[in-house]
Amino acid sequence: MSFIEVLTKTNISQIADSIYHTSEQDVKQILAKNHFSISDFPVLISPDAAPFLEKMATIARSITLLRFGKAMRLYAPLYVSNECVNACVYCGFNIRNTLKRRTLTKAEALTEAARLHAEGFRHILLVSGEHRDKVPLAYFESLAAELSQKFAAISIEVYPMDTKEYQRLAQCGVSGIAIYQETYNRTLYKTFHKGPKADFIYRLTAPERAAEAGFRELGLGALLGLNDFRIDMTCTALHAVYLMKKFWKAHIAISFPRLRKAAGAYTPPAPVSERELAQIIFALRMVLPDVDLVLSTRERSVFRNGMAGAGITRMSAGSKTNPGGYALKENSLEQFEVADTRPSAEVASMLQKKNIEPVWKDFDRSFLSGSS
Ligand code: SF4
């Protein structure tokens, strides 16, 4: 059974009822437990749980320490193109924005990657808008094949693909995918997306195809600000549980893209506060103790500092969200405005001061040798 069938059968009204018709007593009962399950999530994410944030932070911190130790894995996004055929209402790369477009040549992308490598990064995330003509599969194959000589892990955040296409990328050294569903509400999804991305099911099932193709890391997320975040995050958590059960060899990661100002000045219809984001992170850590929780530079440095060790296990650092933003010093259109502008070394230093080890390389392909 695909996750689309699971989602279709999920009783969203019942989930909403658990979230919005809970009580302080329900929250206290759950917080008194030693182990938490996915069925606790709606209560932990509820408005009634908000006053218990400190207690949730303490629990999330101890689970993080137990499962991940005092380590923070660092990665860097490499934007290779800001060209896109879609018109997602919230995005700076929206085809209707007439600002400067750019797709890096392979040589340029390698120059950018060399800068990130020199900074210490060994996990790189290739990001592009969705434009199959400008950035075809062969582009990523060729680039990944070269990057895999230097980087221990390569992930992609690009247009969704078929299983065979993911297989081709896996053969070139790509091992992870990040593909955010934006919202799990099918009706709302249609109102935000125009172009090929409007195909809700094709996007929703992309992590399954990537897992079938052999990707070992599957990154999920909902774009916070589009819909009731409590419902969308519950669906994200269910999606993670589904993938963990079906593809037990794959590692699941959840990111928290929160809508911020982009070219086109979109105002999110359901904004999420930092305090609410913290509640999401703590609640997820409690019910999904082994899932990587990822925080990008969309968030302010002070917030990221606070979340390090309190649930978050992976961070980007020193990010540029426009193609050519690192070594080429391009002034091209960026996808979103970075809030934490610190160089990666400064982020690493902040972590060390908190007694958290910055990990630049969390995987080596030699780990796979001997495995079938
Ligand atoms: S969110 Fe992705 S698909 Fe949509 S406009 Fe931006 S880059 Fe294109």
Model description:
With 372 residues, this protein is of the alpha/beta class. The protein has one domain (54-365): Aldolase class I (TIM Barrel), CATH 3.20.20.70. It is 39% helix and 13% strand. It contains 15 helices and nine strands. The protein has an eight-stranded parallel β-barrel, surrounded by six helices. Strand 6 (251-255), helix 13 and strand 7 (292-295) form a beta-alpha-beta unit. The chain is globular, with a radius of gyration of 20 Å. The two termini are 25 Å apart. Bound molecules: iron/sulfur cluster.
Annotated CATH architecture: Alpha-Beta Barrel
Per CATH, the superfamily is Aldolase class I
CATH C-level category: Alpha Beta
Give a quick account of the main beta sheet: strands, pairing sense, barrel closure. 8 strands, parallel, barrel
Terminal Cα span: 25 Å
Overall structural class, as computed from helix and strand content, comes to alpha/beta
Number of strands: 9
Query: The CATH topology, please?
Result: TIM Barrel
List ligands, each type once: iron/sulfur cluster
Tertiary shape: globular
Q: What's the gyration radius in Å?
A: 20 Å
Number of self-contained structural domains: 1
Can you count the helices? 15
Helices and strands in order:
Elements: H1 3-9, H2 12-20, H3 24-31, H4 41-44, H5 53-68, E1 71-81, H6 106-119, E2 123-128, H7 137-147, E3 153-157, H8 163-171, E4 174-178, H9 186-192, H10 200-204, H11 206-212, E5 217-221, H12 229-246, E6 251-255, H13 274-287, E7 292-295, H14 301-307, E8 314-316, H15 344-353, E9 357-359
Parallel strand pairs: 1-2, 1-8, 1-9, 2-3, 3-4, 4-5, 5-6, 6-7, 7-8
The chain binds iron/sulfur cluster (SF4).
